[in-house]
Amino acid sequence: MPGPAFLTGDDVTLRTIEEEDLEFLQTQVNDPEIRRPIGRSTPLNADQERAFYEDVVCSDDTIHLLVVVDATPVGTIGLESIDWQSAGAELGYWIAPAHQRRGYGSEAVELIVGHGFDQLGLHRLAARVYGFNDGSKRLLESVGFSEEGVHRDAAFVDGEYRDTHWYGLLEEEWR
Length: 175
Description:
- This protein has helices spanning 22-29, 32-38, 46-57, 104-118, 134-142, 171-174; strands spanning 5-8, 13-16, 63-69, 72-83, 88-95, 124-130, 146-157, 160-170.
- By secondary structure, the chain is of the alpha+beta class.
- α1 (22-29) packs across α3.
- The protein is globular, with a radius of gyration of 15 Å.
């Protein structure tokens, strides 16, 4: 049975991730079109996906939600590295290749950003994007994030060192 809706927008619903979603998640993060932009260099088997679910998704220190359209999972979104003292967190997301370029990612980001600022009392959100991921850069900028800097050759993805672009959004900029 699917998890309960947590945040609902016009086209997407963000709901809890449940055990029956693990096969979808594992399949997608092993797809090169997802694996590469999120920086995974190794395959993820079922046991590893379950461990991620149990250790990270079920943790009280992060928020990980499934992005759903008409009851069909299309991606994930979350807030990680939540620092309650400085009121900041890092945003992470991916949308399955078959569902990209339809606005689902933008709406999901708007929903979780609003939740972070309005309900969690966060002051600052950060996001990182590899230099080759122009779509994700555009998405972040479209919802108000600003590029704050580049960590040169900070990640090794697909056999090459890649720049990591850091984006940030302050609560007052969101408002």
